[in-house]
Request: fold
Amino acid sequence: MEVEGTQLFLDLHRPAVDAPVPCVVYFHGGGWARGSRKDNVDARLLPVAAHGVAIASVSYRLVDVAVHPAQLYDGRAAVRWLRAHGAEHGLLTDRIGAWGVSAGGWLALMLGLTGPEPESAVQAAAAWFPTTDLTTVAAERDAANLPRPAFLQGRQVPAMEAALLGVTAVTDDPDTAWAASPLAHAAHAHGPVLLIHGDEDGLVNAQQSYALHDALTEAGHDSQMMLLVGANHEDPAFHKPAVLGATAGFFSAQL
Reply:
C-alpha cells in the first residue's frame, strides 16, 4: 500500500495448520523514528505464531515522513486490509487483535481505545513497555533515574514524544499530547487489554502501564498487567517462554 508517496508493507507469519486461524496486527518499536516490521521475527513473532495465532507485522510511517496522527491512520488501514483480504490467507477476521512494543505498543493501544469505525476496530490489544501518557513519560523517566537500556548506553534520550507530535517539546502543545495518549481514552476500550512492562525500565517507566491499567479497571474494562522484575526496556527477558506464552494465550482466549 502506498500512502502519500510512502510504501507500506505487511509480513504475515501464519501457523502451519490447515484451518483458519485468528490474527493479530503487530507494530514494531523504535521511538516512532526507526525500526522495522522485520525486527525480532525469530525471537518474538514466530514463537507467538506457533501457538496458533497469525501475526501480521506491518510497517507504518515514521516521524521523518509524517507525524501523528499518520501512524494511527496507517494502523487502521492495516486492520481494514486484513478484514478485506484475510480470508484469502486463511485468517479469521471477525475479531482482530493488536500487539505492539514501545512506540508500537502505543499504536496498538490507540487502535484498541479509539476509533468508531467497525472495519478498523480491534477487539483486543496487548502492549509491551508502552508509552500511555505523552505528557508525563519524560518526567517519570527522569524522576526514576533508572539505568538506560543497552541500546541507549552513552547516548542522550531523544525527544521521541515531541517528534511524534511534530513539536520541539511536548509542553508546546499539551492538549494535543494528551489527546494522543492512550490514557486519555481508557474509558472507551473496545475489548480486553494486556500490558507487560519491566520494573527497571529506564526509558518508559512502568508507571505508564500502571496508570493505564488502573484507569481501565476503574472504567470497568478488562485489563491485565504483568510486571517483569529486573527487566529494562526491550530486555531479553521479554522473549522468555512465559511472556511469549502469556501474549499468545491472551490473544487465543480473546479472538
